[in-house]
Specification:
The structure is a homotetramer.
Chain A (H helix, E strand, L loop, with lengths): L1 E5 L7 E4 L9 E10 L2 H8 L2 H6 L4 E2 L3 E9 L11 E4 L2 E2 L5 H4 L10 E2 L11 E5 L3 E3 L6 H4 L2 H11 L9 E4 L3 H12 L5 E4 L3 H10 L3 E3 L6 H8 L5 E6 L4 H10 E9 L7 E3 L1 H6 L4 E4 L7 H11 L9 E5 L4 H9 L5 E4 L7
Helix pairs in contact in A: 5-6, 5-11, 6-7, 8-9
Chain lengths: ~350, ~350, ~350, ~350
């Protein structure tokens, strides 16, 4: 089968012909319908410091997809050939302390398919049955392909109370934009977004923000404080990983508020812990992956009831062969999701 | 001033002329714009067993209203003449154990204005300043008049997670209908309502239910189980107080689910604790009043952002003089809210 | 091997010779060191209505034990021969909605070993590897044999806040007694127990109760209210399943309190929902099984640090052959735990 | 009356003769029995940057005390002359968003007695009645004098689950030491403390730590990871405010763990948010003041049941006149609490 692979510890990738994965008794083989590119894939393609430390070529990468089950291992009873599925690509160990404490999403021995083992930029992908998620038939195919990052957004937004609360989303990349849609669907009050890129600010408004602010222009902190009677927002969802956004975000957070951090800063960040966290009695949550599988249940319900309009997020759809174009587009700062169709063109 | 008063321990009420309340240093006097009738007022009017045990005539009753501040006590600094307000009419003591534990809504020494002391079916009403709630100018006057019962609904719905979860509302009286609107605004998944009255089922659909089921026809329990893949609903909001609704509601609740009970059963209820609560690992919450003042904050945000369409709930608007007509209408099974305008006709 | 089996749908049991269980690839075989008798086993032995509806003879019963791993299936990597283990005998399905929502302890397709499949009253028992729990070497063998019921107690006590709170335990059978020890270890304030049996009241005091009250003598409700400045207890742990204990327990619960119900009433119970739950704003939790595996982690820590003295709970230790004596003793009202030693006498 | 006052914006303080405070209708006047010195008082005495920005001389400082009610304002009904009391010295406004959201301990308009208005280093102190806390007669006088800082410790420890969990306390100053006692009383598992000062490490062991580690010697991070099977601690209680302790503390925290920060860093702190918070899915809580009044209730119960042995904390007891000696002692690095007796010598 065709597979997009990292063959050497350097920039780039190669389309290779490899064998279809063989199944263990509890595995599932899915024929990939659509696969979506994550920022992480861009790092792997570009080969940055993180990639060099984590990725062991050769590797088929890619971890966002939907597809149809081709066959299942001997002991698999809950998934059948023909099922339309996606998957939680974080495979947890089940016996470390976080797993035992009901927090498998921060398993200490996690293996991520597409990072630590072969992923979905291929015609077929192998997944342990318990990580396979059947997609509700009411959910459109291209939405099913991005449930992994959408799950990040759902996890972040629903990690605390949200209905009737004022919310700030810092950073309007794909997951930030999804978070806006989710927070809106969950009944948030005023939703502020901050984002330096004008096009993304436009998208933020389309996704449901009340105000999309440019933090490089004027005093956004004062603006948001004024707009909230001096209190600040109840909830801050950090989606940028940018130190400046983090600093300003904390200044806009009200005492007693929640800050949920998903964005990945490149370097350590200087925090004014006293004023931004301690005296505020704030709750700061690190968000990683998706709750297994609370997030998947909630996300499925929101999608199948049509509560989320994600259309503005989708950009190019292309065959796997055009991977260099795809990564170039993304490196140029293209927001939005690009979909590969490894088994044929998108209809 | 005019005041609708319970003068004697028997059915009925009288429109009386009484003095305008005098203010203590921490009190506020409001000129009532609109007052709304609660089911409790109907009990007081009709003089049932509960009323006989709790109400000490003479008493000006009524506890749902909005109005304009006429004057304030010497030590009141946060409320001013001219403010448009409503109020939390449960006056808590501040020093019992529930008050000290952050649960003033279940204060052991609560005094409810309109029940334990004079209320708002009058031209003027006196309220302790800390119980007065300034109404956001974006909130329509007739909505402001029903924030007390709407707060019951908001408290019930938001007493646990709701976004992305399947919900059952048992009973579509005014608060049940409000709960449907709130659950919908907060991003619930499928929303089932059960209600024997056909008109109320229609209202339930208008408020946002996906299905309004008649529990007297067919097997609603099986229907809801089938519609939820055999699981049952994640959340049950009990708004009827009817034993049959409670029984069926618990049968429709999934293991690990939440049942929030607001409806007031007349008598003790036989519960199958083993199968409905214990083996299910269910969480059952008694809901009383409104969180002080979390509920008021969340409700204000939902209202001011226009997330709740409550128009279908409103029925007659009448001068205070027509109180007998109002209570007759309600006793006839009229759902919906009736508003009094003690200081002149509604526009 | 020897196994104590239910062979026919009637009272009694038989010691049989059966084959040692064969292992699937993810199973573990343990040689039983000590097995403990649960109230449920007594029901199975006596063959009551519940047993008749649930148990399908022939069945090796028993679900509380500790033992040494004899061998493991081909795919088992985390458990080895020679490990000293016990097990969570509730085998969850992993794909129903409660399982997906992080609540496997209320799995809708649970299979309980010793009830729905062969259990541990035998020389050997087969367990799926993910249900096996390695016992910390600091935990005494006889404590390891009762981690299943102790887990019920830990689950109940730690299902909400407990430190610095006043607690009522209704019913001082084995799990009630364990709950007393756990609540005390977790820093509860005053601990009241109610129990009709004088011997058990004595045990309750030994386990750490401040007062062990006889609910058949005097007004225990008033006594507890008086002792808590009229407030009532913050937390009620219901361990009796007796309607009278439940009624009185709710009357002793303060507004805003938590009632965690583990005891199994034989029949539906009449509850004064209005006064005991709704107006109180109480939280009522059904408790079933053990959190998988939060409860096991917490319990292990409490045991290995010697925070729980459970010695007063232990009674007879006998070979499996003496099963009729054991069940007779328990039927006579004997509190405390009886241990079987299927592979030889206790030292 | 005598009062220890900050008279000028510079180092030092003066014992002055001032009038006894006059009472408003809702105030209480207490005759101070014992007052305790907080680190904050040391800052005010020494006049650091924070003091210069916050304190407006002249001011009677001091905010930890116990005493006897001398008289009460006209509207005070719940406190009487002769009551033995202490007080929550953070006076919240009641109408900002945090106050309205049930978080008065992070009120945006808080006034702290002893910082923003006259405090308790005097013969008498005036307190609003709702901030006065009656001391249970079972609580020793010198313990009552330090309920303010003890409340910080109780708030921190009980801000999340603690029973059966492994805990790290970074910093063994007075509040860190109290936190050790509280965590132990609440049933924590292994308790590690880190502290550079040898004397304080000794005290940490006396208060109940299992290990008191010197972070300047060897690799404490690796040591704690090894001691927790590689997982790290479940809960980190940061009591030092020192960047190094914070860094190491986060490295010792397990994925999914809780970090509760009370210590006040002098400067912003560089945090490795990705590895220490985000990828770990950690929950970081800023802790400020005491929950009003949940913390006071829990603390009272723990004290009155004798669950906390705080004796090792107490050092000198002296008349108010010896204030220079007291501050010198503390500036010399003396751990432990010093008590003033403004109305006469300690017995």
């Amino acid at each position: 089968m065709k597979a997009l692979r990292k063959m050497r510890p350097q920039r780039g990738a190669q389309l290779e012909s490899v064998g279809i994965p063989t199944l263990g008794p509890t595995d599932v083989l899915a024929r990939v319908r659509a696969a979506s590119i994550c920022g992480t894939d861009l790092h792997i393609y570009g080969w940055d410091r993180w990639s060099a430390s984590r990725i062991h070529p050769p590797l088929t990468f890619g971890h966002e997809f939907c597809g149809v089950v081709e066959k299942v291992g001997d002991e698999v009873t809950t998934i059948r050939s023909g099922d339309f599925v996606t998957a939680e690509m974080h495979v947890n160990c089940g016996h470390c302390r976080p797993c035992r404490m009901g927090q498998p999403h921060v398993c200490q021995n996690v293996k991520i398919l597409g990072i630590d083992a072969d992923g979905c930029f291929a015609e077929f992908v192998r997944i342990p049955a318990r990580n396979v998620w059947k997609v509700d038939p009411a959910i459109p195919e291209h939405y099913a392909a991005i449930m992994d990052p959408l799950g990040n957004a759902v996890h972040t937004v629903l990690a605390g109370e949200i209905a009737g609360l004022n919310v700030l989303v810092t950073g309007a990349g794909p997951i930030g934009l999804m978070a806006i849609a989710v927070a809106r669907a969950a009944g948030c009050a005023t939703l502020f977004a901050t984002e330096v890129n004008a096009h993304r600010r436009e998208l933020a408004m389309k996704m449901g923000a009340d105000e999309a602010l440019d933090p490089s222009q004027g005093d956004v902190v004062q603006h948001v404080l004024d707009a909230t009677d001096g209190a600040g927002v109840d909830v801050m969802l950090e989606m940028s990983g940018h130190p400046d956004a983090i600093h300003k975000g904390f200044q806009m957070l009200r005492p007693g508020g929640r800050a949920s951090l998903l964005g990945i800063p490149k370097d350590p960040v200087m925090l004014d812990l006293v004023n931004d966290v301690i005296f505020k009695g704030a709750t700061v949550q690190g968000i990683y992956g998706r709750r297994m599988f609370e997030t998947w249940v909630q996300m499925t319900e929101l999608l199948k009831h049509g509560r989320l309009n994600l259309e503005p997020l989708f950009k190019e759809r292309m065959p796997l062969e055009k991977f260099d174009d795809a990564f170039s587009l993304l490196e140029s700062g293209q927001a939005g999701k690009i979909l590969f169709y490894p088994n044929g063109s998108a209809k």
